[in-house]
């Protein structure tokens, strides 16, 4: 099944052997940190 970004999620999971697991808190924090870094880089890139 394809998600909104257009890549095939099933193939992705098979290729990387990703299991359908709940996202732990640490992962969410890491994700939030990555978002902040991306935002900072984006502002840097635009200026």
Report the helical percentage.
55-70%
Would you identify the regions where 5 or more consecutive residues have pLDDT less than 50? Answer: none
Task: Report the order of strands and helices.
Answer: HH
What general form does the structure show?
flat
Mean pLDDT: 73
Write down how many β-strands occur, each being a DSSP E stretch of 2 or more residues: 0
* Biggest sheet layout: none
Structural class: mainly alpha
Assess the beta-strand content as a share of residues.
Answer: under 5%
C-alpha termini separation: 38 Å
Tally of helical segments: 2
Rounded to an integer, what's the Rg over CA atoms? 15 Å
Explain how this protein is built:
- The N and C termini lie far apart (38 Å).
- The protein has a domain at 21-47.
- The chain has 47 residues and is an all-alpha fold.
- 64% of the residues lie in helices and 0% in strands.
- The protein contains 2 helices and no strands.
- The model has no long low-confidence stretch (mean pLDDT 73).
Write the layout of secondary structure elements.
Layout (H helix, E strand, L loop, with lengths): L8 H8 L8 H22 L1
Short description:
With 47 residues, this protein is an all-alpha fold. The protein has two helices and no strands.
Characteristic terms for this protein:
47 residues, mainly alpha, 0% strand
């Amino acid at each position: 099944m394809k998600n909104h970004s257009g890549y095939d999620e099933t193939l992705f999971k098979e290729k990387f052997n990703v299991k359908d697991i709940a996202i732990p808190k640490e992962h969410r924090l890491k994700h939030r940190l990555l978002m902040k870094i991306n935002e900072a880089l984006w502002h840097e890139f635009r200026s």
